[in-house]
Specification:
Strand order of the largest sheet: 2-1-5-8-9-4-3
Distance between the termini: 52 Å
Bound molecules: fe (iii) ion
Radius of gyration: 20 Å
Order of helices and strands: EEEEHEHEEEEHHEEE
Strand content: 25-35%
Helix content: 10-25%
Largest sheet: 7 strands, antiparallel
Length: 243
């Protein structure tokens, strides 16, 4: 037998893996970036084949990695983690630099960045394992802590009363109540709300049938434990949507 809980005991960081192919720039949030060797300096990344970035790395033979800072904004993580580069230009509202190899690397809310030339690709079924030799790189902010997957998971779910009430500090609780009051004061009939993490739009006319929310349910009537059906963000992460 295998206890699936073992996977929670593995530690990961969170990174933005980026690439350019022809004129297209794209990137995604990855937790699998690890150093393989020191001499030469090589890292490996595991990239889902369904990811647009995977085909761009395979096509160009290069990729960039930015190490997310612990306080990286949800908007940035949402843009790179929950949106598709097929639909939006993820770099349009993101601070980045173009390296000498012409790879776009994100500098916003990141601790460090580096670029790699792919030296080996391993097909693992659902994913491509790219092994890259590091070409260039620099520290952006040595005072920032890198974001770990564990920290992100605990802090995201930690604000959920349903799953882990013990994680909610009193000041956080008050903060959430204040945000909910503010949201209620802005609500007008038929008001749509947008998720600030992934840009999903809640339309009261449609409701959220999969979560048992009937069409015609205004945003403020959603249960407190309702979460964004796309990215899992909480009600407090939504704001009124102006069309
Ligand atoms: Fe969302």
């Amino acid at each position: 037998m295998m206890n699936p809980e073992i996977f929670y005991s593995l530690s990961y960081g969170l990174y933005l893996v980026t690439a350019r192919y022809a004129e297209k720039k794209n990137g995604y949030v990855a937790n699998t970036v690890f150093q393989v060797t020191a001499e030469p300096a090589q890292v490996a990344i595991s990239c889902n084949k369904d990811n647009l970035t995977a085909s761009m790395i395979a096509g160009s033979g290069y990729f960039g990695v930015s190490v997310l800072a612990q306080d990286a904004s949800k908007t940035l993580i949402g843009r790179f983690g929950y949106r598709s580069g097929k639909e939006i230009d993820k770099f349009e509202e993101t601070a980045f630099i173009e390296t000498p190899e012409n790879i776009p690397v994100v500098t916003e809310d990141c601790v460090a960045w580096f670029t790699c030339k792919v030296v080996q690709t391993v097909d693992t079924g659902s994913h491509l394992l790219f092994i890259g030799e590091i070409l260039t790189g620099d520290v952006i902010d040595a005072h920032q802590q890198p974001l770990t997957y564990d920290y992100y998971r605990k802090n995201r779910h930690g604000r959920s009363p349903k799953n882990a009430p013990t994680y909610i500090k009193p000041e956080k609780e008050n903060e959430v109540v204040e945000i909910q009051k503010e949201q209620a004061s802005k609500t007008v009939a038929g008001q749509k709300w947008i998720c600030t993490v992934c840009d999903h739009i809640y339309d009261p006319a449609e409701g959220d049938p999969e979560a048992g929310v009937a069409p015609g349910t205004p945003f403020e009537s959603l249960p407190d434990n309702w979460v964004c059906p796309v990215c899992g963000a909480e009600k407090a992460d939504f704001e009124p949507y102006q069309e």
